[in-house]
Amino acid sequence: MEDLDRMTAPHVRFTDERLANRLRLIVSEDHLAPVVAVCIWYDVGSRHEVPGKTGFAHLFEHVMFQGSGHVAKAEHMALVQAAGGAANGTTFLYRTNYFETVPSHQLELALWLEADRMATLLDALNQENLDNQRDVVKNEKRSSYDNRPYGAWFHKLQGHLFPPEHPNHHPTIGSMDDLDAASLDDVSTFFRTYYAPNNAVLSIVGDVDATQARAWVERYFGEIPASPAIPSLGDVSLPPILGAEKREVVVDRVPLPRHFFGFRAPVLGDPRFDALEVAAQILAGGKGSRLHRRLVRVERIAQDVAIYPVGLVGGASMVAGQATVRPGVDPAVVERAFEEELERLGREPVTDDELVRARGLIETYELEALQRVDERADRLSMFATVFDDPDVINRQLDRYLAVGAAEIQAVAAEVFRPDNRVVVTYVPATEPAAATGGEETAA
Amino acid sequence: MTLDEILAARPSPGQPRTYDFPRFERTELASGLRVLAVSLPGRPLVSASLVVRRGAGDEPADVAGATILAARAMTEGTRRYPGVELIEAAERLGATLHVDASWDAFAASVDVAASRLGAALELLAEVAQRPTFSDPDVARLRDERLNDLLQVRADPRRRVEQAFASTIYTADSPYARPAAGSEETVPRLTPDVLRSVHASVLDPGRAAVVIGGDLTGLDVPTMVKAALGSFGEGGGDHVASTTPAPPTVPAVDRPIVRLYHHPGSVQTELRIGHVGLPRRVSDFHAVQVMGAILGGLFNSRLQMKLREEKGYTYGVGAGFDMRRGAGPFSVRTAVQTAATVPAIADSLAELRRIRETEVAVAELAAARDYLVGVFPLRFETPGAVVAALAGLFVNELPDDELARYRREVEAVTIEGIQRAAQDHIHPDRLAIVAVGDAEAVEAELRSAGFGELEVIREEVPPEAGEAGEGSE
Predict the structure, then answer these.
(1) Which structural domains are found in chain A, ordered by start?
(2) Are B313 and A139 inside 8 Å of each other by CB?
(3) What domains are defined for chain B?
(4) At what angle do helices A184-194 and A56-63 cross, to 10 degrees?
(5) Interface pTM (ipTM) of the complex?
(6) Do A35 and B157 touch (CB under 8 A)?
(7) Which residues of B touch A4 (CB under 8 A)?
(8) How confident is the model at residue A285, as a pLDDT?
(9) Could you tell me the pTM of the whole model?
């Protein structure tokens, strides 16, 4: 097999240290553009939520933009934007991240803003702001999930793949009832428990002087006390496979049936998960992929196909897939063809040419992503948080390129099996939707 | 010092590093094809784009969607690389190959390692010049579009965009139509129709190749000449190198409300606006600053009111979608169903306020400093620089447009903002287009007096089946 001459992926040089309060600081200089990215990962996400409080980690993330001891409501964004920067935060099952990208001469501002809310968030907390952001988050849930055709698919797969008592079982966005139940006390307790320097990784990447950056971090974060006891999640291990297929049919206001597939998979960092990422490229990465060729192009039974490996920690990851059924086609035919292609991957090795093509694209995607300082900062914080090893940023591409046909076949045989599968099928309501008014809408 | 004392002192910014938009070299091949090359040292992944000033806005109404469908069909195979072989050839170079069309332009693009740029340009030339448009591929893509139209009707976010466009423009404007074609026009898009679109795109006088990345040691003009020197041979007759902007007559001359019934919807998707502005407008920079204050910044007036004060929405934006012709001006949001009428009222109040009273000094400063400051962040990667240069070419803007940008924004005044608002925002002819649950909002909407109300009840989701049958 003839691989491409490899591009020289730029090596990301960085320093990695801890302050006395155990805040982990990673600094990487890159002076190509006059910009710098700041990214903090807190090792807390929706999997740390307790029953009755789903959606809280994300609601809390919103509260982090409602002001702190020396910053007024909405001022965080105002200061960053007036500095010519961009900022946001996101919440997922296993982490919450906050980030700013600013012109390099504004780095100190970004660090001060992050430090002020890590140190003094509760000084600005009030019921009015919590209620306001609760309303905003409920509208986020409506916009992103409830008012979209097929909108609940990911949450349904999650619910089936992880047992109810497992922390990965429930959606990060939470439920309306639980959001309603969130109180100021919950915010305080959550902040005191998880938002501490010893539960965070701060990465600074870009046009900075590392010595100066370190001095500012020491100044603004150095005195913030560590949290004495960050609770551990306990045993979150899971059997590697589901044990029996789970199926659900959802009657919804959709024009075309669509299958969503879910499989339990090895956790992030397991080399088998890297193999799954390469397998996903070969199966569904664009027009040259197996599923697109067969279902969309040749047999013309599907409108679109996709595979998404979703890397998780603690128990298992998931691989999601989807196929939209073309009008007039039996959904069972589409399901069978989709599953056959996944199962074939476990029986026969992929060809050399498929591997070469997948590697070429993965290399380009990786290089594309690593061009940006914000992506590098996010990955450094991620790899430090998840693997305790930020240098994975320089090895991840090699890990993908090391995946061979044997590894793909082995992981496909382990993962893509009927007793490890969830199939959620959305079907159009049979009653004309116009006839369903008010209470009688199809469940 | 205590922690509180340390945090009580806000830091001040350091000395900004100078930044200039990257300089580019402009050459022209004998055919008239322009070549813009921008050297970005340290960026090993190169972006290359062949862009033609010929978009969906330039196509006849009876074959609406032909330009976008032609673009999609071009990566389905060429004479040298039939079918999937084309994509396989790109993947063997580690190259991502795309062909896209917008209202304004047609673009074939590739991202690839600098060391493989020559081979990627050959592939770009092949896909741009020798697509096959085979019958089965075109039939399948037509069906995919028809099926996608079914999905549009079922998805409030997509439905409202179509409804808004067809409300504010008269039917003779292309902007009234879905850019990718409608149920009526898509069945007409035969391979021959796509071939004639393609012939009109093969026009070196309206085309440019834009390449950005680490081009050290590469003779870009020679490489482009080798690959695309004959681009345009065999194309249609091309007389003028400029393209007139599409017609954009407003269809609305008084405030109106259109409510598309989406039963059981938990939110109302809202678009409020009218025909806006083309990209080439004399007070472009004042419009940008005004738009940022009204609905562009995270803390824009609309966002502070509807989200941070009222909690009606996850987000609201407003602005001008500028094209070669006058694109739409709109306020865009989705609000919980019960807040539909108050959210519209608040939006209308903000549209009046920005016209009637001067913005505060602090508001001007926040918007100006953001637009000036964020400029270098926008152009961190070759892809972003190439897209910006392609935009200059498509809109026939001067070469120094981006180099002047920050000076122009800094010169915007409070008076200029108010003039821009008064000239370009028209509360007396706003269309309010909503997709939501009519059972829940119609009565309140009717008594609100925003304008004449029309309620449209169509089947949601539409009956599927026709599209598939037609294709077999």
Answers:
(1) 15-221 (3.30.830.10), 246-440 (3.30.830.10)
(2) yes
(3) 24-228 (3.30.830.10), 256-456 (3.30.830.10)
(4) 90
(5) 0.94
(6) no
(7) 92-94, 116
(8) 95
(9) 0.95
